[in-house]
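// run 5 | inverse folding | seed 20
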């Protein structure tokens, strides 16, 4: 063997040993996949794939309905053991009704004994043709709204005039309880539409039964629409049917007052008597405008029945406060100016509002600002346009003028839900969700009050302009709808004829024009 061959062999053995040693040592650095916990968790997560992130498809398409059915069955099964709130204690002795508060039928007969039933307005009687034509026009609006409701949504709470079917807002629960009928009865009576009125009365007699009401309903809405509606038409007619229905509904609301403070909850279940507040209300509290508006109806109900439990239930009640302040003054007037406490509360509240919230814009417009989280927000809601009825004439006139400006500064001549005051814009809605109009009547109510107090013809003219704007922008072949954007001509409608449209807008238009 030559020297070179031996050299090659030695070199080969050296490199072979190094390579073998390298392989042997690397083996000890290879991870143990079987024992690595992190790796095992990762593989499980990876294996789960989309099923880990996306819930499995329910193979029972009727699960929602079956859950509801099981819930209702359980409610019925436990009916005997339901924890129904106990009604407030009733005083044994009936109170003496003040002389200033006269029974409605007696008032009706006394007031109209010599001059006839003036509560039924015959269009144009003693008026010039212009006024007659305008009142006939409003009556025809009422006919159009009512006839379409009767045709497409009779017994439902409201009408969808575009799609021509019934509609119910959540505040009415899930039962068709004829809110539009109850809201419109006094308007039909005032306008002398007696055939329609009689049909509505028959529905109330045969169908208005709150024992059938399903789900949670608004105490506030039930009071102002149903209790207030029944008491209003009772005051006109003296028909005991309406008093009986008002008592029935108010009794169903009474358990809402069984709270530690005596302040009623906002929602009540008519089947169980259980009540609660809205979850979105600050701290789960009751809303001032809602508890305040119970005063007038409940006090009047005690007056006409002689039963003090209704007024006693509410006597314990000492933002969203518009209706509260409005009703304080109304109750003082309704009581024949006997309810001094309501008047004093109104005076105190009005003084604070004047000192803290009444503002005048750079353009000279009077408005009611909002106080939120410790600071003023220079915004006014349409609901605050009731302020034309405030006791101080200069403020009332200023607010009414501002609300008219909010209408006049739109292309449709209809007012937005809320409007703001900035350096660049006054009495205009700046946000998209404030530009709608849902047939609200507050501005027109202020026109009426200011017209009666001042006899200034501009308020009648403003009222007629509003009638024309509603007819042009809200009317369809199936009734009247709100509009989604008051700044847009020929814009989309919301397809809801609110139940308060006949009893709010149309009722107040007749005496204005």
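// decoded
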């Amino acid at each position: 063997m030559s020297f070179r061959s031996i050299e090659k062999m030695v070199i080969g053995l050296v490199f072979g040993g190094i390579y073998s040693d390298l392989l042997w040592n690397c083996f000890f650095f290879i991870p143990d996949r079987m024992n690595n916990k992190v790796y095992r968790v990762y593989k499980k997560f990876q294996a789960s794939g989309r099923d880990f992130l996306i819930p499995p498809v329910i193979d029972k398409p009727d699960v929602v309905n079956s859950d509801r059915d099981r819930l209702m069955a359980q409610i019925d099964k436990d009916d005997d053991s339901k924890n129904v709130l106990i009604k407030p204690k009733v005083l044994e002795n009936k109170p003496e009704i003040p002389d200033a508060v006269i029974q409605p039928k007696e008032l009706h007969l006394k007031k109209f004994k010599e001059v006839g039933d003036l509560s039924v307005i015959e269009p144009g009687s003693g008026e010039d043709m212009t006024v007659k034509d305008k009142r006939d026009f409003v009556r025809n609006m009422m006919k159009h709204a009512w006839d379409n409701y009767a045709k497409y949504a009779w017994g439902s709470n409201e009408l969808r005039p575009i799609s021509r079917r019934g509609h119910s807002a959540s505040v009415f629960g899930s039962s068709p309880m004829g809110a539009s009928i109850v809201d419109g009865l006094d308007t039909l009576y005032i306008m002398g539409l007696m055939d329609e009125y009689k049909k509505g009365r028959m529905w109330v007699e045969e169908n208005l039964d709150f024992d059938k009401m399903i789900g949670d309903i608004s105490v506030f809405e039930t009071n102002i629409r149903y209790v207030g509606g029944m008491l209003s038409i009772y005051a006109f007619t003296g028909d005991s049917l309406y008093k009986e229905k008002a008592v029935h509904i108010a009794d169903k609301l009474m358990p809402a007052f069984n709270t530690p403070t005596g302040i009623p909850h906002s929602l009540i279940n008519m089947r169980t008597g259980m009540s609660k507040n809205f979850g979105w209300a600050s701290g789960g509290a009751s809303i001032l405008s809602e508890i305040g508006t119970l005063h007038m109806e409940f006090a009047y109900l005690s007056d006409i029945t002689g039963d003090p439990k209704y007024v006693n239930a509410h006597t314990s009640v000492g933002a969203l406060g518009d209706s509260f302040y409005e009703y304080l003054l109304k109750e003082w007037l309704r009581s024949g100016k006997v309810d001094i406490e309501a008047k004093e509360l109104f005076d105190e509240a009005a003084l604070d509002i004047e000192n803290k919230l009444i503002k005048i814009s750079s353009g000279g417009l009077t408005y009611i600002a909002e106080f939120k989280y410790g600071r003023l927000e220079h915004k006014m809601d349409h609901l605050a346009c009731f302020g034309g009825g405030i006791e101080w004439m200069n403020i009332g006139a200023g607010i009414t003028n501002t609300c008219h400006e909010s209408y006049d500064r739109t292309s449709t001549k209809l007012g937005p839900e809320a409007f703001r005051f900035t350096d660049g814009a006054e009495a205009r809605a700046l946000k998209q969700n404030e530009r709608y109009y849902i047939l609200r009547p507050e501005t027109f109510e202020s026109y009426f009050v200011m017209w009666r107090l001042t006899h200034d013809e501009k308020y009648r003219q403003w009222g007629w302009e509003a009638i024309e704007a509603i007819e042009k922008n809200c009317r369809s072949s199936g009734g009247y709808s709100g509009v989604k954007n008051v700044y847009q001509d020929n814009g989309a409608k919301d397809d809801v004829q609110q139940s308060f449209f006949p009893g709010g807008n149309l009722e107040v238009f007749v005496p204005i024009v």
